[in-house]
Amino acid sequence: MTSDIAKNARPKARVVKIEHADDPRLAPYRDIRERDLVGRTQRFVAEGKVVLNVLLSSARFEAESILVLDNRLSGLEAQLRLCPEELPVYRVSQATMDEISGFHVHRGILAIGRRKAIPSSAELLAGLPERALVAVLCGISNHDNVGSIFRNAAAFEADCVLMDETCCDPLYRKAIRVSVGATLKVPYARHGSIEDVLASLSQEGFNLLALSPSGTQSIYEASPAPRLALLFGTEGEGLPKPLLDRLNTARIPMSRDFDSLNVATASGIALSRFSRFS
Amino acid sequence: MTSDIAKNARPKARVVKIEHADDPRLAPYRDIRERDLVGRTQRFVAEGKVVLNVLLSSARFEAESILVLDNRLSGLEAQLRLCPEELPVYRVSQATMDEISGFHVHRGILAIGRRKAIPSSAELLAGLPERALVAVLCGISNHDNVGSIFRNAAAFEADCVLMDETCCDPLYRKAIRVSVGATLKVPYARHGSIEDVLASLSQEGFNLLALSPSGTQSIYEASPAPRLALLFGTEGEGLPKPLLDRLNTARIPMSRDFDSLNVATASGIALSRFSRFS
Q1: Chain A residues within 8 Å of chain B (Cβ atoms)
Q2: Cβ separation of A254 and B272 shorter than 8 Å?
Q3: What residues of chain A lie within 8 A of the CB of B254, using their CB?
Q4: How far apart are CA A18 and CA B163, in angstroms?
Q5: Is A63 exposed, middle or buried (0-12, 13-18, 19+ CB in 10 A)?
Q6: Domain boundaries B121-274, CATH class
Q7: pLDDT digit string (tens) for B114-154?
Q8: What is the average per-residue pLDDT within B253-266?
Q9: SS in 3 state form for chain B?
Q10: Domain range summary for chain B, segments of one domain joined by +
Q11: Which residues of B touch A51 (CB under 8 A)?
Q12: Which residue has the higher pLDDT, A9 or B190?
């Protein structure tokens, strides 16, 4: 830490000016767009003030550092007051930020976050109340869709999201951004086969309802169970037929004349229908 | 037209092989990504087989030409049989298609479409039945959102979409693609101020319901009118307050703890709720 602390704010966090893109303290921010495509570590990238707010108030994630444009600092006073003193906050010029990150960061606020603990689906389910709503995702590998589904899960206060291992990581930069931080907010687990996930749910007394254009009941006719798990599959192929043959199924009633809904929209409609708010 | 007709299909349309990206017949396909960003003509670009199907069966739009990868021709027999003989169908290599269009066209199927007639909102409304559902968009300028809203409007068979002049053109390449062709299927008009649009609706006996997180009724409590128009505003700022003060408003009931829904998702939930299928 240097003594170069921003003077126009009175944050707890120390704000350190960094002049050069090759400063080793910026290494976690290097080429974040590229890295997003090729792999993951335990760390993730949060973008923008709204997502930073979620990260800073999260029990399951913590910030490792924050990187802010010089001219965005004054808008972050409240956030910086929340930060522990030991959390590094770096400020840079737009040119430095764009150079290090590999694209134009128009929001001007980035943070590196880290998972503190990764609960299993069994642990998550064990902690749920008597009335609970869970979203279950099978094979959803599109970052936008995963992000949007989490945003809907947060809006309708689903208790958690369970994903099989073929779903993409909800901590991809784009998934976090599209979710407006909901992937840092809604508890989730992502491991095992869909069969494993469904077995855990049955064991905890959840009623399963698999969403499919060929579902037998309309979601508006299906009666909500106290513990309900809504199962969503990929947009193109949908849920595996052996699963659909075995589970209770429901459809969003719609035109037969047109391609089905986007899976994220379908999740919004079904979660809204079965949320405690409706 | 040359005599180089594909032999493995028996289409009505003549398929012409083009070898060079600078062939003038390919001019409408040049740099389509760039042009999408800078302006519009009466023409638009359709991508992929599903959208091509919609275009070829449309009463309000027509294809001017089709551009297909050599190796995708055999999958288009049914479509090519639908085409009038005078419609040029060009086939090219992947390299030529990517060079002319300015990006990697992995779907391998492009078409240039054209509007035949542009109805006004008054004309559209005059043709609607006694029971009708209309989506009204105010200031929605994001192509993805406009495309998704049209996809939802098609899925729930909204009778038309009315947009004020500050909405973006639903014939942008990306809006058409995200809509899976629905912007070519669901009748729409886009002109005038939102006040003009609402005045036309009132005149035709439509009940207006403005969707807003601060809406007075839940969408699940609001009773559907025979002629119902659902009004959606931008995601960030929502509908102008003077409008909300004056109109009947409804909210999608949700958590107060989280950022509101994406407007496209909100349209899916509200259209599903009030569709003839629910």
Answers
A1: 50, 148, 151-152, 154-157, 180-182, 185, 218, 220, 252-255, 257-262, 264-266, 268-269, 272, 275, 277-278
A2: yes
A3: 155-157, 272, 275, 277
A4: 47
A5: buried
A6: alpha beta
A7: 988 888 999 999 999 999 999 999 999 999 999 999 999 99
A8: 90
A9: CCCCCCCCCCCCCCEEECCCCCCHHHHHHCCHHHHHHHCCCCEEEEECHHHHHHHHCCCCEEEEEEEEEHHHHHHHHHHHHHCCCCCCEEEECHHHHHHHHCCCCCCCEEEEEEECCCCCHHHHHHCCCCCEEEEEECCCCCHHHHHHHHHHHHHCCCCEEEECCCCCCCCCHHHHHHCCCHHHCCCEEECCCHHHHHHHHHHCCCEEEEECCCCCEECCCCCCCCEEEEEECECCCECCHHHHHHCCEEECCCCCCCCCCCHHHHHHHHHHHHCCCC
A10: 15-115, 121-274
A11: none
A12: B190
User: Using the beta-carbon criterion (under 8 Å), do A255 and B277 form an inter-chain contact?
Assistant: yes
Per the document, the length of chain B is 278
Query: B235 to chain A nearest CA, in Å?
Result: 13
Best mutation target, A177, A254, A276, to test chain B (most B CBs within 10 A): A254
B258:A148 CB<8 A: no
So what's the ipTM on this one?
0.91
Which CATH number is correct for B15-115, 3.30.2350.10, 3.10.20.600, 3.30.950.10, 3.30.1330.30? 3.30.1330.30
